[in-house]
Specification:
Blueprint lengths: L1 H10 L23 E6 L10 H13 L1 E12 L1 H7 L2 E4 L4 E3 L2 E10 L8 E10 L5 E10 L4 H10 L2 E6 L7 E8 L2
Parallel strand pairs: 1-2
Antiparallel strand pairs: 2-9, 3-5, 4-5, 5-6, 6-7, 8-9
């Protein structure tokens, strides 16, 4: 994600410093002052192992935002993901990346309990011009949450939710929150 951010910033002539930083380390870094905004995107919050870890992550994000600053969290609609259950999904079209066509494949493992670790395996079959196929993949754990749990987590972190794009029929949404005085 960091490398992709750098590439996109270059393509759009934007000045962006992209760094890897664990949530637990956010408040320990010298950022030169508080941020106006923090963006937690790409469904990353679901990789925090459970409600306590999710709230610690949000609390740390809130700690590096100025009073009145904004935290934006994007997420999948995990209710939809859980309703669909365990399954295999193969993309409906090839995705070009660095001049190579790839076919993304996802395998979802959805347990009955929301609080149990969930898993998805993602693989990309890369199709070379000579017809050979190489596959790259990884398994990721995630702990889903619903929209109301996210709003409660934001409030527990000292943030006030102010806007959302959530809808029962929306596959991905964003929640905007402000840091109170």
């Amino acid at each position: 994600m960091i490398e992709r951010t750098r590439i996109l910033a270059d393509e759009h002539r934007a000045t962006v410093t992209a760094q890897v930083c664990a949530w637990e380390e956010l408040a320990d870094r010298d950022w030169g002052g508080p941020f106006d905004a923090v963006f937690c995107v790409g469904n990353s919050l679901a990789h925090a192992p459970g409600e306590d870890a999710r709230r610690r992550a949000l609390t740390t994000m809130a700690a590096v935002v100025r009073t009145g600053g904004t935290v934006v969290v994007t997420s999948r609609n995990w209710k939809q993901v859980r309703t669909a259950g365990s399954r295999l999904e193969v993309a409906q079209q090839l995705v070009p990346r660095d001049g190579v066509q790839g076919l993304p494949i996802y395998a979802w493992s959805i347990p009955e309990d929301w609080d149990e670790p969930h898993h998805f395996d993602v693989a990309v079959a890369l199709l070379a011009a000579d017809g050979t196929v190489t596959t790259h993949g990884e398994r990721m754990a995630f702990w889903p949450f619903d929209h109301e749990a996210l709003r409660a987590d934001l409030r527990a972190a000292g943030l006030t939710p102010t806007a959302t794009t959530y809808g029962d029929d929306v596959p991905r949404y964003a929640v905007v929150a402000r840091r109170a005085a």
